[in-house]
Structure formats: structure tokens, C-alpha cells
Amino acid sequence: xxxxxxxxxxxxxxxxxxxxxxxxxxxxxxxxxxxxxxxxxxxxxxxxxxxxxxxxxxxxxxxxxxxxxxxxxxxxxxxxxxxxxxxxxxxxxxxxxxxxxxxxxxxxxxxxxxxxxxxxxxxxxxxxxxxxxxxxxxxxxxxxxxxxxxxxxxxxxxxxxxxxxxxxxxxxxx
Length: 174
Hints:
The chain is α+β, with helices and mostly antiparallel strands and 174 residues long. The protein has three helices and ten strands, in the order E-H-E-H-E-H-E-E-E-E-E-E-E.
């Protein structure tokens, strides 16, 4: 099941998030030569994106043992307005994605974020015709709209053809 919430962040918090990420010339982006592991293995350059990792707790497991994750990001504070609104027991991972425009829609391979049951919150930072497919249904990117779903289930993104860049933030949590 997917829960869709429009205007998830208040106007001030959403504006601060955009200024901190989208309009910040100091924000660091890293090339991911594939959107999913299969894309990387196949060396398919139609499937690439940029990302910035805010936080990662790869050592967390399905027994919910307490481990402290890691961050090298000076921008970790940017996830606070989003995480404060989620009913979280533990933060597992958070990152922001940047996708480039393609001439035609490119569907990336299905993937799961982590191999155990957990929640995901995908916040779109701009409106465009790219998006995410969950349970066979396409959800196009709408600015400040969040998708709440089980990211341990297969899902995938697809590229936009109408605007140069697409941005979204994902928080994985228990």
C-alpha cells in the first residue's frame, strides 16, 4: 500500500530544503553509474543518477539491533524537517537523488532498498513527468508530495522528459 501526502512539509521547511539542496552551489553530488545494482553490473549508461548520502546504517538488521550509522555529510540537518514528521523508531538511511532528463522515458530496474521489512518515505522536490513505480502503479513527481511505502518490496524509478533535472529525497526507517 502506498500513502500519498501532498504538501508534506510546511512552506518554510520546503523552501529551506530546496535552498539547501537544489539551489545550493556548495551541495556535493556523487555519480552513481547505475540506479540499481543490476544497472551497474550491466554498465548501462542510460541508467545513471547522482546522489548525496545523508546517513547510512548498513549494519542495521531485521532484529532491530541497535547500531549507530554513519554520516560524512555536513548537510545532515536538511533531513530534520522530514524525519520529524515521520513516526520513526530508527533511521536506517537517507539520501537525495538527482536524475537527468532523457529524450524518452527510461524505466530503471526494480530494486529493494534493504532486504528486510521497513518503511520508506520518498519526498519529491520538484514537479515533472518522471517518477516511481510501486506495485505496478506509476507515481509522477509532484513537488512537496511524499510517498510512504514498504521499500523492501520491489519498486523502480523512471526518468523525466519535460524538465532538465529531477530531485527527490528518500528516508528509510523503522
